[in-house]
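Slide 14.
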Amino acid sequence: MNAAVEARKTLPLTGVCTALALPRSSLYRSLSPPNASLHKSAVKKPMHPRALSMEERQAVLAILHSERFVDAAPATVWATLLDEGTCVASIRTMYRILGENGEVRERRAQATHPTRKPPQLLAEAPRDVWTWDITHLRTTVKGRTLKLYVCIDLYSRYVVGWYLSATESSAEASHLFGTLAKRERIGRDRLVLHADNGGPMRGQPLADLLETLAIGRSHSRPRTSNDNAHSESQFKTMKYRPDYPRQFDSEEGARPYCQNFFDWYNYDHRHAGIALFTPDDVYTGKVDEKLAKRAETLALAYERTPNRFVKGLPIPKKPPTQVAINPTPKPPPPGTPGEATQRQEVAK
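Slide 15: predicted structure.
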């Protein structure tokens, strides 16, 4: 702080505070006279001429404490006394007097929800983290939907497996993941399975299976869809396809559509989140080969018409090496405007 005070004499104030990561308000406060920094609440305010005297306030409190009005709201007390030809104070003043005596609170205990820590998962290779969810497919029968279980690999966005049913239950989810774990040869303590807080996701059959297979479990916070954003995004990709039907006639009619869609999604869909490779390319390790082919093609294009590439030789983008759910925010570099505020938010 002393360095900021000395530097202020010869340097611009904003530049000094930015360089020292110091809010300007802190510097102004240090330069203010001692009396100016007193909080407003420390200064005793004179009593308003229209305010009730202490004796009148005690009389109002005695009325509110009386056996007749002890369980009545101030509005009821005020109206009752007014009908009887008495006016001792306004409704707001009654509330104010009760508040000063610590007597304004909820009559019944209110439910409180503890702060839940957001799930934080990191995938650095295929089969590190799977995320799954259930979406409803409308049918021609009003009020009846088909339930589509979909599990995707977080690192590659590859749809590992899907299951279509007329119902949703933890037993069916257990059957799905028992099949997938065996087919993908998931070792013990190798995989984390992330889902939301639905009944099938937290049911006992699935919990028993995951414990037996030593597969870790992770769940979203209640009413927080962003904690499972990758599955939600995959459902949107499906339902916004041009050929997606608004309704399905039956489970048998929906199954071929789902099969065709997931084949396209895994093997033909150029996913923006993985540098426009297909999920199968990343899941099966074909990225390096295709990346070299892209680099070669771009190099040939650059040789033919270098004037069209104003930034020089183009380098094809690589898929991310890490994919996270709720990643830890990185602190801003030193000297960044607003760094002090951002650093406080990160600390929280």
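Speaker note: The first strand starts at residue 121 and ends at 123.
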